[in-house]
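Re: that chain you flagged

S.,

Sorry for the slow reply, it's been a week of failed gels. I finally had a moment to sit down with the sequence you sent. For the record, here it is as I used it:
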Amino acid sequence: MTARDLAGVKALVFDVFGTVVDWRGGVVRDLAALGRSRGLIADWGQFADDWRASYPPAMDRVRKGELPWTPVDALHRMILDGLVAKYGLKGLSDAETDHLNRAWHRLDPWPDAVAGLTRLKRHFVIGTLSNGNVSLLVDLAKHGHLPWDVVFSAELVRHYKPDREAYLLPAALLGLDPAAVMLVAAHPGDLEGASRAGLRTAFVARPLEFGAKGKPHQVAAGQFDLNAQDFNDLAHQLLGG
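Prediction finished late last night. Pasting the structure tokens below so you have them in one place:
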């Protein structure tokens, strides 16, 4: 796929957790800080992994109607309460648990994110397309100086990705055909959902998403419209130079 083949793309929308920001590093950092302040010892990396792994099943409960519409902040808190008990973290106040739950609002961007987004913003409308609720995404943007033109959240249509309604939201609100919108993500399943909805797709590798010992997502050549090493490489492929 070449830039000429993608000339009709007008907007780039980005998955956020893992694609734009380092969720694991930020969550582990806040867990470890809490542990130091309270004298608590646990495998914080595993705690973070368990927290993240419980997130898709929680969204599925909403999707299947087992739960009413529930924003990600509330899902994260439900999962966290269970993990606090599982890991035996006794004596945490409600305020401490709330602060820990908001670790997801304080995640740092990957090193290439801001520069790459800034370059892409000069030529495309750029925004999020995340399952995160709007307040969470706005806080991440402020924290990490992310230069979005717009924040699209599954919360706006009350359908979590990979529901088709979530992927069609940006095109509908920007007045574009779905094929004029490209989803950028580090997760093949997300991109497959976008492709089924008629969006263009770009995979961006994030080899450290699951930590130095984790297994990153990989894709086959030609599986998506573009395959980039980071946001700077994506900008080079789309814009040249």
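What I noticed first: The radius of gyration is 18 Å.

Talk soon,
D.
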